[in-house]
Each structure stands twice: as structure tokens, then as C-alpha cells.
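[Discussion] Sanity-checking designs against the backbone

I'm trying to build intuition for which residues belong where. Below is a C-alpha cell string of 654 positions. I'd appreciate it if someone posts a full sequence so I can compare it with mine line by line.
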């Protein structure tokens, strides 16, 4: 079989995942899209494609601006501190992206300005006034009729009445073309999403969208009207072309080579932006449209979408640390049928590791390699086939074609099922041929052939597992003394005529499910506390926005005390932060505060301040900050809140 492309005629494949909001709390749900994309990217590379796999971070918007403000740092400092973490996550999960784009990258900012200007010059962006609803967490504009019970239809949270001068994009002009794209081509998959888009959005009437904001600053400034910043979704979607060097004026080499995208991959909640607004923007820019948008389902946890704001996240770093990248990749890729939601449970994760990875796959490879070594010192040659071999050989030969078909339809779950079907067949083949009986009966030639047939099946399995579980695929091939092949050529029985195999350690250790569940429960309660903190923070922001009342009990949950500043210094490489050493009664505390622009360290020493004592400690620039001091601010002015006359440190503020 020679399905791979020759080097000289390499076809391109451009694949993207969403660029993530730097939330600082990455969960297993986030990993799904990127691992899914990685399996496709690796498979395509193996098929000889020149793959460009793009991912990155979406760093502008009101949400980030507010969070940075609460953390007492600039938005850029805030996002800089989080981007490293997501890169670490992708590296922990062996994600082989080609490029990581940040929407704060200079080239992207400039290109977005040019794109906006181009749309304006063309008359597809015009100035008017926006009056309607805005959901800050989703950074989405809504009309009254789109709200569900008066709330954001995407996240169910309160929306804010917004009235601003705004630029608008003429989405309505492109409605007929977008409708055609969705209904007459297979641009959007799965099919069910097409109905959702057409019924809920297009046929409900596509209105022009507000594409600039004036009520906050953290975004790409509109070049020709500096009070406006570009709407975060226009900024974010543009990353798919700016990453290739598009700047609204010139075509770059990468743009010529890789655009249009072959696949935009994401979960269902942002399909609307990718299948309606994005194609319309591209039409307005006179650029070719992406070939495919796939909107997968959600990873659910306890029936709900796993999400930071719902406090039901599962920490991928913890799971990776305990079970390894491949176990997690395998679980994610196997758990979600195409387009549907999949429920995460720790039991299901551990059971899959034990039964499919450790028992079925691990035992097959370990047993076979052990017998190879024991009976033939690892040296095997192709022999004469018998009738017993026919079924497994046929399956071995058919596997690549079947996996390719699923992967061409972007269905890794089904592809893995096919691979594991051959794993099952190989295990049954051992039971059927009974090598231990062949040994006793001195049927050496037959025994060698049986082990050869198994080893060939294992080779094909090992190669085809590489895109999904790369470390495991490599270990399997290493036990056959083979390097990962550069192409998929030769994935048929008999292609390798002789072997010199080596025994290998267990691919996956057997887990004690009960013990692991207990451990995970303990670890989860730790992260639940953290999630509560995030939820409280978000709630606080919503309350602020709505001017809601709190009860006296709410107020007294905050423990406020007078504290004396006994030492103070600047925090390295952070121009807004001071590190304070505070005496609170008998206790000494360290607090990091964003007041460096208003007070010098020298001025601070000796001052009495009001400290929020029961705030959960948090890490800021490598320093554990144990509380927060109160200030009053007005515009650019900021002053400390202090007791009016002398009172001892540790005195309660009530
Ligand atoms: O929406 N199950 O970023 P985001 C499956 N910045 N996938 C999940 C998931 C879950 N429980 N939770 C998150 C944004 N995801 C924008 C995108 S693109 C131009 C801008 C994945 O950080 C899924 O792919 O909220 C989803 O679409 C993406 O994370 C959204 O991530």
C-alpha cells in the first residue's frame, strides 16, 4: 500500500483549534480539542502532508481587563503570567503544534487594525450606535429576542444593558451566502449543528453585529478612531489568518501555502462565531473560505459542561502526573463519540486504563515479546501461513484503510475502536493457537509463524497508535527495534520479513481503582476550594456590575483588621507591585499589593492599614500573598484606607 504522498508533492493541511482565554484554570475539557487536533495533525503528517497546526491564546477583552484590575497588575502582565501555563500543558500532553499565536503579539495587533480598516474602506463596517445586551463572560452581544429568560443564551448569566457608539459589521448583507454555505455544502459538521445555526440564528434574522467597544480599553485600538477597540471576536477569529502572515494588504508565503484552513476544530458553543461571522468576514475580505468547521460536544462532569465558572473542573496536570500523557490522551479521544457530549468520571478513566491499555494492549505486547525472547531469543522470520492465520492477517491488512477512513472524517474515537478491535483479535489468536502447547509439542516452525503473525499485527497497531498515544506507539516500535516510520507505507502483513525483538516493561501499570479513586477525591477537594475562590471572584464581579445588595452576614464573612507595615520593598519585574510585611497583633503576614504607582516602599513603612485577613492566600510573582489591604480609588488616584486615629495593630474593623 503506498498511500503516502511523495516528499516532492507534499500537500498542505492547515488545522486550527480555538485560541483559549488565559483563565489560569485549565481543565480536561480544554484539553479535548487540542488533543483531538493533535491526533489529526500527527495522522496527517504520517500520511505525508505538510501540516500547519495552530493554537494560541485569546488575550483581549473586558473579562481580562477586570481580572487584571482585581489582581492589581496590568492586563499584559496578567496574561503574560498565564500563557506559560497553557504552553506547559500542551507540552505535558505532547501536543505537536506548529505555531502558538497570542492576540497580544505585535504582528497580530497590527494586522487586525489593517483588517478592520479594509472592512471599513469597503463599506462593510460602518459607524452607528449600539443599544442592547452584552454578556461580559462570553464577550457576546445579544438582542432581546435571543435572550433566554432574560439571560445569556450561551452561559445563562445576567446580561448588561449597553449603550455605546459602535462600529457595525454588515453581517446581514452576507446572510444569503452564509445560509447557502451551511445548507448546500458540508462546510459545517456534524449535520445537527447546521440545523441549530440555520434555525436559531440565520432564519431568526441575521442583524449587523457591533464590532467595536468604547467602554473599556484592553483590546486592539481601531487605527482611525482611537476611542474604539476592535470587538474581541473579530480580533480572535482573525488569528487564523494573521498567524499565516496576512496583514490585510500583502499575501505572505504561508498564507499562499496554507490558506484556506482545511479544518477549524472547536466545541459547539463557539460554532456560531466560526460558521456565521467568520465566513462572512472572509467573504468581505475576498478571501477563500475554510474547508471545514467541526463543532464537537462537551466533556461533561456530573451532567454539566466542565467549566471553570461552574467549579467542576478536573485538573489535567494532576491526572497527567499520576497516569501519564498517553492515558489521558487515550481517554479523551475514546470517550467522546463524534459530535456528541461525553461524561467524565474518574471510574471510567481508571477502568479504561486498566482494561484497555493495561490488560488488552499491554498484555498483548508484553506476552508476545516475552514469548519471542523465550523461544527464539527474539529472532523471528516469516513462515508459511495456515488457515488459522487468515482472519488476523485480513484484519491487519484492513486496519490502515479503516483508520484512514475514520480520520479523514475526523472521527478519532471510531479509529481507536478499530485499532483495539485488532488488539482483541490478536489476544484471541493467542488463545486459539496456544503457543504454550506448540512448545510442548515441539512444533517450532508453527510456533515461530504464530509469533511472527502476532508481531506483524503489533507493528501495525504500534504505528497506527502513534497519532493517538505517541509515547506508547514509540515504546511498542522500540521493542520491535523499529523507529517510527515517516509514512504509512507498508502497513500490511509481511512487510517486515524478519525481526529481532526485545522484551519490554509493562506499557501501563495496573492501577488499584479504589485507592486511586480515594486519592483523586482528596486532590479534587483541594481544587474544589480553589474553584470556589474563582466562583466567588466571578460572582463578585457580577454583583459589582448589578449593584446588588449583600446581607450583613455576607459582610461579616470578611475579617478586617488593622495592620502595621513593618517592612516594604518593590517586587522585581512588576512595576505595580509592592511586597509588604505586616504586623497584625502577634502575627506577621506578607501581602503583595498593586500600589507601587502611588506609594514608595519608604512611605509605606510605619503606616497602619486595613487588612482583609481571611482571603485565601495566593501566589503572585512567586510570593505568597496572605490577604489584601484596602484602598480607595477615583480615576487614576488611589489612597490607602487607614484608621482615623492611632489604634493597635490587630484591632478588628467592624
Ligand atoms: O471560547 N468540553 O475560548 P475558551 C469540550 N477564546 N471542550 C471544551 C470544554 C469542555 N468542557 N471546555 C472548553 C474561547 N472546551 C475563545 C475562542 S477562537 C477564535 C476564540 C474547548 O478558552 C472547546 O474547544 O472559552 C471550546 O470551544 C474552547 O475550549 C473554548 O475555549
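Best answer:
Here's mine. Compare freely.
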Amino acid at each position: 500500500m503506498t498511500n503516502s504522498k511523495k516528499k516532492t508533492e507534499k500537500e498542505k493541511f492547515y488545522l486550527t483549534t480555538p485560541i483559549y482565554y488565559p483563565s489560569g484554570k485549565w481543565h480536561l475539557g480544554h484539553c479535548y480539542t487540542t488533543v483531538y487536533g493533535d491526533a489529526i495533525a500527527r495522522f496527517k503528517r504520517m500520511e505525508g502532508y505538510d501540516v500547519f497546526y495552530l493554537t494560541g491564546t485569546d488575550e483581549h477583552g473586558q473579562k481580562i481587563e477586570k481580572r487584571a484590575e482585581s489582581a492589581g497588575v496590568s492586563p499584559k502582565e496578567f496574561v503574560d503570567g498565564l500563557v506559560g501555563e497553557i504552553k506547559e500543558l500542551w507540552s505535558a500532553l505532547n501536543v505537536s503544534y506548529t505555531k502558538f499565536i497570542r492576540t497580544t503579539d505585535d504582528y497580530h495587533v497590527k494586522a487586525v487594525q489593517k483588517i478592520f480598516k479594509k472592512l471599513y474602506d469597503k463599506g462593510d463596517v460602518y459607524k452607528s450606535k449600539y443599544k442592547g445586551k452584552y454578556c461580559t463572560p462570553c464577550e457576546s452581544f445579544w438582542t432581546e429576542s435571543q435572550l433566554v429568560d432574560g439571560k445569556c443564551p450561551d452561559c445563562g448569566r445576567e446580561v448588561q444593558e449597553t449603550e455605546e457608539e459602535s462600529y457595525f459589521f454588515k453581517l446581514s448583507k452576507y446572510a444569503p451566502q452564509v445560509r447557502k454555505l451551511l445548507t448546500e455544502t458540508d462546510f459545517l459538521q456534524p449535520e445537527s449543528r447546521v440545523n441549530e445555526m440555520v434555525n436559531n440564528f440565520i432564519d431568526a434574522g441575521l442583524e449587523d453585529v457591533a464590532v467595536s467597544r468604547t467602554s473599556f480599553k484592553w483590546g486592539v485600538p481601531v487605527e482611525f478612531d482611537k476611542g474604539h477597540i476592535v470587538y474581541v471576536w473579530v480580533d480572535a477569529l482573525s488569528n487564523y489568518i494573521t498567524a499565516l502572515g496576512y496583514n490585510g494588504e500583502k499575501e505572505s508565503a504561508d498564507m499562499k501555502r496554507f490558506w484556506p484552513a482545511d479544518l477549524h476544530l472547536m466545541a459547539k458553543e463557539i460554532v456560531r462565531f466560526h460558521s456565521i461571522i467568520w465566513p462572512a468576514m472572509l467573504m468581505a475580505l475576498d478571501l477563500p473560505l475554510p474547508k471545514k468547521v467541526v463543532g464537537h460536544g462537551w466533556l461533561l462532569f456530573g451532567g454539566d459542561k466542565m467549566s471553570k465558572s461552574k467549579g467542576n473542573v478536573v485538573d489535567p496536570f494532576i491526572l497527567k502526573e499520576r497516569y501519564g500523557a498517553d492515558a489521558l490522551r487515550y481517554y479523551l479521544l475514546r470517550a467522546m463519540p463524534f459530535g456528541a457530549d461525553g461524561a467524565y468520571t474518574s471510574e471510567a478513566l481508571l477502568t479504561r486504563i486498566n482494561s484497555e491499555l493495561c490488560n488488552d494492549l499491554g498484555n498483548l505486547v508484553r506476552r508476545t515479546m516475552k514469548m519471542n525472547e523465550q523461544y527464539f531469543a527474539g529472532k523471528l522470520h516469516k513462515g508459511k501461513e495456515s488457515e488459522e492465520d487468515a482472519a488476523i492477517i485480513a484484519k491487519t491488512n484492513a486496519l490502515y484503510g479503516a483508520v484512514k477512513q475514520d480520520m479523514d472524517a475526523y472521527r478519532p474515537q471510531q479509529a481507536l475502536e478499530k485499532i483495539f478491535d485488532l488488539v482483541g483479535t490478536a489476544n484471541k489468536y493467542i488463545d486459539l493457537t496456544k503457543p504454550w502447547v506448540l512448545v510442548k509439542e515441539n512444533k517450532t516452525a508453527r510456533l515461530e509463524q504464530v509469533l511472527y503473525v502476532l508481531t506483524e499485527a503489533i507493528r501495525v497497531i504500534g504505528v497506527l497508535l502513534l497519532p493517538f498515544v505517541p509515547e506508547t506507539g514509540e515504546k511498542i516500535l522500540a521493542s520491535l527495534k523499529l523507529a517510527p516510520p515517516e509514512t504509512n507505507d507498508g502497513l500490511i502483513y509481511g512487510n517486515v520479513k524478519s525481526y529481532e525483538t526485545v522484551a519490554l516493561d509493562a506499557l501501563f501499570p495496573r492501577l488499584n481503582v479504589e485507592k486511586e479513586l480515594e486519592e483523586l477525591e482528596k486532590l479534587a477537594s483541594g481544587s474544589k476550594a480553589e474553584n470556589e475562590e474563582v466562583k466567588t471572584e466571578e460572582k463578585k464581579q457580577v454583583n459589582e456590575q448589578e449593584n446588588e445588595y449583600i446581607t450583613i452576614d455576607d459582610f461579616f464573612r470578611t475579617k478586617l483588621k488593622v495592620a502595621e507595615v513593618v517592612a516594604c520593598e518593590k517586587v522585581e519585574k512588576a512595576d505595580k507591585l509592592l511586597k509588604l510585611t505586616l504586623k497584625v497583633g502577634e502575627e506577621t503576614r506578607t501581602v503583595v499589593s498593586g500600589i507601587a504607582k502611588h506609594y514608595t516602599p519608604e512611605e509605606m513603612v510605619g503606616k497602619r492599614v486595613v487588612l482583609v485577613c481571611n482571603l485565601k492566600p495566593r501566589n503572585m510573582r512567586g510570593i505568597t500573598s496572605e490577604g489584601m489591604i484596602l484602598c480607595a480609588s477615583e480615576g487614576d488616584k488611589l489612597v490607602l484606607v487607614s484608621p482615623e486615629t492611632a489604634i493597635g495593630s490587630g484591632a478588628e474593623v467592624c
